[in-house]
Specification:
Order of helices and strands: EEHHHHH
Distance between the termini: 20 Å
Shape: globular
Radius of gyration: 13 Å
Number of domains: 1
Strand order of the largest sheet: 1-2
Strand content: 5-15%
Helix content: 40-55%
Largest sheet: 2 strands, antiparallel
Number of strands: 2
Number of helices: 5
Length: about 100
């Protein structure tokens, strides 16, 4: 296990995903987002909250499900989290990497 060094130190796995998603904080999310040069907007927060809620429900997340969420479409999802939207947004949301991500 490794720890991402931020103002809030939380234990992560070797890929940088939180070990315990219940320890997630918005401050931690902002710091992780900054490593991707992302400034989180209200739309980002809506997506992150949706991801966290679905994870808590046990839903297997996919890009298609995010696109069908009613919060964002697939094109905007890619614009919000460029370079791997589900992988990056899941990491920022403090949830495990979805099985659908390589």
């Amino acid at each position: 296990m490794e720890t991402i060094v931020t103002a809030v130190e939380l234990q992560t796995n070797p890929e940088g995903y939180l070990v315990n998603y219940k320890e997630w904080t918005q401050e931690w999310a902002r710091e992780v987002a900054s490593t991707y040069q992302l400034e989180l907007t209200s739309k980002h927060w809506q997506v992150l909250e949706w991801l966290r809620a679905k994870h808590a429900e046990g839903v297997a997340l996919t890009i298609r499900k995010v696109g069908a969420s009613g919060i964002t479409d697939i094109k905007e999802f890619y614009q919000l989290f460029p370079g791997g939207p589900l992988k990056i947004s899941s990491k920022i949301a403090g949830i495990p990497k979805p099985v659908s991500c390589i």
